[in-house]
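Customer escalation, tier 2.

The customer says the design service returned an amino acid string that "doesn't look like it belongs to this structure." They asked us to rerun it and document both sides in this ticket. The original structure tokens are below, unchanged.
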């Protein structure tokens, strides 16, 4: 009862006589739900399975969600066979691999880097921005200088395979990302640790053959990733421009705050993107966006525009790849 009163006070309602709307009542029952599924980690795409294993090493020992998500996505960043994150990522149209990443913890500490070159672990640079600077985001040359000064090693991230593909692309040089293929990019990871704290990380080489200097949603807090330790966390993959337009991950978390389950929150956010796209008379054919979301109780969900998106979930029941439900029933 005391916490109920506290909850109502927190909302600024001095009297129950004011009448609680159904969404507030839903939100209240959300706060009171007793049992939590924790620890748990979710991440985008099939490479999430391996990344989850790494995160689970930390979560299963009672470690912090922040450490789990950082270590988890570092695995994908270092894997040259993943052509869309970190080392081996597809370059921009000038042949440069430029990386975007951000991280957010349970205290709403945030750090981010965008258009960072030659550093294999942008997520750890983002964490250093969060922990060692008065700022929240560094870009381009400034981000590289900062990384250098904090001991990050510079290396060539363009692999022979990626360079070969890029040279092939140059023959036509058409920027036409293919749904679920060239934009099969980002690893977004969100976790709830045994202490009930949430954190998230998001890292990518961005859309293949983008303009040099283009920044997507992935390093933008609120767009590619958002965490509110009272409510839940969400992260996005797909066309960054559309995710930024709707501040997608923040939208998903706010929908959960209003009482929606993570699944429903992802569906509503995807529908918002679809509405905005249609309002602008653009086609959905080549736009893919997927969200994954996790709430404070360890409930989770995901939704995307086109079929073919999947995500990995690791909790006490094990690590599994789950097919994301989609608005359009294709590709799936
Ligand atoms: C971007 N959102 O740079 C990233 C790309 C991506 O799955 O996630 N693709 O726009």
């Amino acid at each position: 009862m005391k916490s109920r009163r506290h909850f109502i006070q927190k909302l600024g309602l001095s009297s129950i006589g004011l009448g609680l709307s159904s969404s507030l009542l839903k939100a209240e029952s959300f706060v009171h739900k007793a049992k939590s599924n924790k620890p748990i980690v979710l991440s985008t795409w099939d490479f999430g399975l391996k990344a989850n294993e790494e995160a689970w090493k930390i979560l299963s020992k009672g470690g912090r969600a922040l450490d789990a998500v950082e270590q988890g996505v570092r695995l994908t960043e270092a894997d040259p066979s993943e052509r869309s994150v970190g080392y081996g990522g597809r370059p921009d149209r000038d042949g440069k691999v430029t990386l975007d990443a951000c991280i957010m913890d349970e205290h709403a500490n945030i750090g981010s880097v965008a258009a960072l070159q030659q550093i294999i672990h942008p997520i750890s640079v983002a964490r250093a921005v969060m922990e060692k600077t008065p700022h929240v985001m560094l870009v381009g040359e400034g981000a590289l200088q900062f990384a250098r000064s904090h001991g990050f090693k510079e290396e060539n991230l363009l692999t022979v395979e990626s360079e070969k593909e890029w040279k092939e692309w140059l023959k036509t040089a058409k920027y036409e990302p293919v749904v679920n293929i060239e934009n099969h990019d980002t690893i977004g990871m969100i976790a709830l640790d045994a202490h009930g704290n949430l954190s998230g990380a998001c890292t990518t080489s961005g859309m293949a053959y983008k303009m040099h200097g283009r920044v997507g949603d992935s390093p933008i807090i609120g767009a590619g990733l958002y965490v509110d330790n009272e409510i839940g966390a969400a992260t996005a993959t797909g066309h960054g421009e559309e995710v930024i337009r709707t501040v997608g991950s923040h939208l998903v978390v706010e929908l959960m705050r209003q009482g929606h389950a993570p699944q429903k929150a992802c569906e509503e956010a995807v529908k918002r993107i679809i509405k905005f796209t249609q309002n602008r008379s653009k086609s959905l054919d080549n736009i893919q966006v997927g969200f994954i979301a996790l709430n404070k109780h360890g409930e989770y969900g995901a939704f995307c525009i086109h079929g073919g998106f999947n995500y990995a979930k690791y909790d006490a029941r094990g690590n599994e790849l789950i097919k994301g439900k989609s608005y359009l029933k294709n590709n799936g």
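Tier 2 assessment: The sequence is consistent with the input. The first helix runs from residue 2 to 10. The CA atoms of residues 106 and 229 lie 5 Å apart. Sent an explanation to the customer and offered a walkthrough call.
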